[in-house]
Design a protein that fits this description.
Layout (H helix, E strand, L loop, with lengths): L7 E5 L7 E4 L3 E5 L11 E4 L1 E10 L2 E2 L5 E5 L20 E5 L5 E7 L6 E11 L2 E12 L6 E2 L4 E2 L1
Parallel strand pairs: 5-12, 5-13
Antiparallel strand pairs: 1-3, 2-4, 5-6, 5-9, 7-8, 7-10, 10-11
């Protein structure tokens, strides 16, 4: 409730955290002296969603950990070196899988953006480290929800 507000048309917007989105983003209201005016209803949800799944080797969970990287851009193999030069374009979201072979990566959601994912599994071949990768594309994410079943298998 506001007292001593000048009559006229106002645009009302919710004050959001950077990791939230609102629908609608704003409402227009007309304030008339002596009347109560409603600004309508806003639905506010977290702007982050998540991508999750499993990483397996011959059907068994990979217990040593797999690096999962998600971005709106194509992810290079091996993964890009992170620097001020590589971080000036599309965002990269990453996490390592757990011992039970599951992973979950939080990403910013969008109504129009699709994500690509790459998983990097490092193992030893004799004494030589080998980086093996798998990729997925066309992953959509909705704010406040998990996009599940994005599995990587070796």
């Amino acid at each position: 409730m506001l007292i001593n507000l000048t009559t006229g048309t106002y645009t009302i917007q919710p004050a959001l955290d950077t990791k939230e989105v609102a629908a609608p983003t704003s409402n227009s209201v007309v304030v008339t002296a002596g009347f109560t005016t409603s600004a309508g209803t806003f639905t506010v949800v977290g702007a982050l969603g998540s991508v999750s799944g499993r990483v397996t080797l011959s059907g068994n969970p990979i217990q040593s950990g797999v690096l999962v990287v998600i971005s709106t851009t194509v992810i290079s193999v091996p993964p890009p070196a992170l620097s001020s030069a590589s971080l000036t374009t599309s965002a990269y979201y990453a996490n390592s899988s757990k011992e039970d072979g599951t992973y979950s990566v939080d990403v910013r959601s969008s109504t129009s953006t699709v994500y690509n994912a790459a998983a990097f599994y490092v193992y030893l071949n004799n004494q030589t480290p080998v980086i093996s990768s798998r990729t997925l594309s066309g992953i959509t994410v909705t704010g406040g929800n998990a996009t599940t079943g994005q599995n990587f298998a070796w």
